[in-house]
Amino acid sequence: MKRVNAVIVGAGAAGGIVAKELSTAGLSVVLLERGKWYTPADCRKDDLRNQRTTVLGNAFGPEDEGNPRVVVDSSGVPRTVLPSEGAYSNNAACVGGGTLSYGAQAWRYMPQDFKLRSIYGAPQGSSLEDWPITYDDIEPFYDKAEYEIGISGDYSGTPFKGPRKRPLPMPPLPPNREFQILEPAARRLGLHPFHIPMARNTVPYNGRGPCMRCRWCCGFACEVDAKNGSQNTVIPVALATGNCEMRTESMVKEILTDDRGRARGVSYFDANGHLQQQLSDIVIVSGCATESARLLLNSKSRLFPNGLGNRHDQVGRHLQGHHYTGAIGYFDFETYDDIGPGASIAITDYSHGTPGLVGGGMLANEFIRLPIHMIDRMPPNTPRWGLAHKKAMRDWHKRSIVIMGPTQQIPTADGRVTLDPDVKDKWGLPVVRISGNVHPHTFEIGDMQARRSEAWLKEAGAISTSLMAGKPKVVSAGQHQAGTCRMGNDPQGSVVNRNCQIHDVDNIFVIDGSVHVNNGGFNPALTIMAIAYLASDALVHNWKGTGFRS
Length: 550
What we know:
Number of helices: 10
Helix content: 10-25%
Structural class: alpha+beta
Shape: globular
Order of helices and strands: EHEEEHHEHEHEEEEHEEEEHHEEEHEEEH
Distance between the termini: 24 Å
Number of strands: 20
């Protein structure tokens, strides 16, 4: 195959942006994606088979059981987990990655999130560090992501936010019933509610129409193409340049290096299972925190016997996701109006500033609860089946509200991805092995957030409440996964520099959520996108100067 300037592994939130930025700058690009390019027609609105209920299948990949993982439980016992099992954690494998089916909340991290260690110190047993970049460094790229991807909402109602140059490009959707119930209650509590920022068209934008407000949103592809991801924004722009070629159903085996230790391309299995080589001047890894770490660890050679970027045993460490906590409130009047996406109102008053807690998180009402989701949100002691169960479903499905949010997770060096020594996937590659427990301070933050959610619901008129403050026994590797290839100035404690360039190899980049030093108290998608723009900007600048020729 013809040598190209750049090969990108993964066509998700970050990989799609990098492909667009490089190809529009004139670089020749090959974009490799292990999954397919799905459309809403391929993914019918099946309540039982969507990405939020993986035990009944993954509508957006992995498609088969040939991609297992090994999860080590809290007692140290490993277990092989298939993609159809909940413990696998739902990671999309398709063009657009998670942005094809996500709920599309598009949050900026707050300025404090980039310097947690300086502000709070590091809890004992944690690996909490500051980012090597600041909010001011990334703000222009947040702005670029908001306008190029297309974000709606309104931050004007809260003082708890980072400074910005201009408002979001689209207004929020009109308030739904839950917004109307929760907004005055929040104000009575002295809080500052506002419209959630979302990667969703509310008016015609970039040639596509607005949201039709159906109930099938989070976990589903949008049938009117109003939900904005890399598959319908930046990737089409990249392909239209003529400089970018995308190859789907292409599973990358390893990054190839020469006898000087520099990347020379990748080898990958094509859609027919044949092993191919794509040579390139630079390699960008954008597979997600678990799969990017796996690829680096699988890329072993004489000069890199422990994998690429792993000279100091940092690849795979500091894995973190989000510990979701909150509360469900039960009301004596109907709260449900069947207007999607459901999630509409949020507060960030509790993201920082609580004595004794390292950060916090935003709180928001939840997306529409399909009946299957309501099963785990019944009042305590509800029977799991039978007439009493059915009656409870009828009583409470339309008379309940969930408030929850992603807790700022405290990273540890032992929360990690390694290669399993025994289990291999259908291509014969060692699979991801996930191990490590959640730092206990994460649960302390989450417990406080759950009680705050409960107080908000009670003020809104809930006649009873139930806390949602579970304590997962192993670190999360789901759709909000981060860490494993963290950025930093010190090569001994990080994998990439502030421009997402591997310390050990100047023509390999990791650009995705794996470079996050912490995961914020927010959905990370917009930050993944902003980092992709930031790193691409530096990459293009350096390419034009040196071409990464050593």
